[in-house]
Specification:
Blueprint: H1 2-27, E1 31-34, E2 43-48, H2 59-73, E3 77-80, H3 97-103, E4 114-117, H4 128-132, H5 134-139, E5 143-145, E6 149-152, E7 156-160, H6 169-172, H7 186-203, E8 208-212, H8 227-232, H9 234-239, E9 244-247, E10 253-257, E11 264-268, E12 287-291, E13 295-301, E14 305-312, E15 317-324
Parallel strand pairs: 1-6, 2-3, 3-4, 4-5, 7-8, 8-9, 9-11
Antiparallel strand pairs: 2-13, 6-7, 10-11, 10-12, 13-14, 14-15
The structure holds 2-acetamido-2-deoxy-beta-D-glucopyranose (NAG).
Residues 57-58, 274-275, 293-294, 313 line the site of 2-acetamido-2-deoxy-beta-D-glucopyranose.
Length: 331
């Protein structure tokens, strides 16, 4: 009898620990930043990815045109889809690449706004903590890069997701070193992240829901679809009425429609080196637009419309798409 109750005590403690951790995790939400829309209720931003090359490979030319479009649209902020610094992220907080590839390049007046950035696989090859460090914000107050976080307002909620730890190949292929501090074990990291994203999406009452990651869910470019994201992240986005998934990784511009939900996949990974020249014909379904050169994307949101425009290195409009919603379906 005594041994039985000792056992039940042990079981009780085990359950408390397991359930307690589950409970703790449930309340450990993603960090949130509020970005209030303009007084007319609209919000505009630019999306750029795969850029930090000290101005080379047309990075400076793209940056110049971003400045022009940013001025015209009176943008509220800029979103970076990752691979912020080539080839291997930052070596530390004092790496001059930060200013040489970011501050000095995106110097236009209209780009002096908040930048919200995720990490790409190349960033994981350097010192990840350095890129996340508040020290960089002292050097350039526009910079905000975190692993996963939310930018919210009543108009739009943007869910930034750290996609690099999803890709199994990076853990098994020995040719590059990745900084997995804070990610190990990846299975737990991914499970917790998916839980957080799902809960935040489910609770969101924003008019527009946008998810940003570095890796593509769908892409007709060099890397193609990311199977881990198709399997693990896409079902969550489909079940929670996400409007757009935006990413980089493939150095091109793309607009692909999901075939089984209203989700639009928007690729903006053309911030510098491009022209790889390989297009996957197999992913033909749902591909509305594919451009293999440099450029960027703009997003203009109102309560009823989302206008997306893609631009090339000289600022020429390459492709436009509009999504609309009923006014009465909100709040
Ligand atoms: C820069 O852009 C121009 C115009 O699209 C293109 O012809 C050229 O090849 C690009 N340069 C590089 C280094 O990619």
């Amino acid at each position: 009898m005594a041994s039985f109750s000792a056992k039940s005590m042990t079981m009780f403690f085990l359950f408390t620990i397991i359930f307690g951790f589950g409970f703790l995790h449930a309340s450990a939400q993603l960090q949130r930043f509020t970005h209030t829309p303009k007084t007319d209720g609209s919000l505009n931003f630019l999306v750029i990815g795969d850029w930090g090359r000290r101005g080379k490979y047309n990075q400076s030319e793209v940056a110049f045109q971003m400045g022009v479009v940013g001025e015209k649209l009176d943008i509220d902020f800029v979103v970076s889809t990752g691979d912020n610094f080539y080839d291997d992220g930052l070596t530390g907080e004092h790496d001059p690449n930060f200013e040489e590839s970011f501050s000095k390049i995106y110097a236009a007046k209209s780009l002096q706004k908040q930048w919200y950035s995720v990490l790409g696989n190349h960033d994981y090859r350097g010192d990840v903590e350095a890129q996340l460090s508040p020290f960089l914000r002292q050097i350039d107050s526009r910079w905000l890069c975190l692993r996963s976080f939310i930018v919210d307002s009543e108009l739009v909620e943007i869910f930034f997701v750290d996609t690099t730890p999803f890709v199994e190949e990076y853990f098994t292929v020995p040719e590059h070193h990745y900084d997995w501090n804070g990610v190990n074990p990846p299975q737990t990291y991914i499970a917790n992240l998916l839980k957080d994203v799902e809960m935040a999406l489910r609770e969101s009452t924003a008019k527009w829901k946008i998810v940003v990651g570095h890796h593509a869910i769908r892409s007709a470019g060099h890397h193609g679809d990311t199977k881990e994201l198709v399997n693990l992240l896409l079902p969550i986005l489909q079940a929670n009425h996400v409007d757009f998934y935006m990413n980089g990784h493939d150095h091109c511009l793309e607009h692909i429609s999901d075939l089984s939900s209203p989700i639009q996949f928007l690729v903006s990974g053309a911030g510098s080196k491009a022209w790889r020249g390989d297009v996957r014909e197999t992913t033909g379904n749902g591909v509305n637009f594919f451009y293999d050169g440099q450029g960027f994307m703009s997003v203009q949101l109102t309560r009823t419309d989302a206008n997306i425009v893609f631009y090339d290195v000289s600022g020429q409009v390459l492709h436009k798409t509009t999504s609309s919603k009923q006014l009465h379906s909100s709040i």
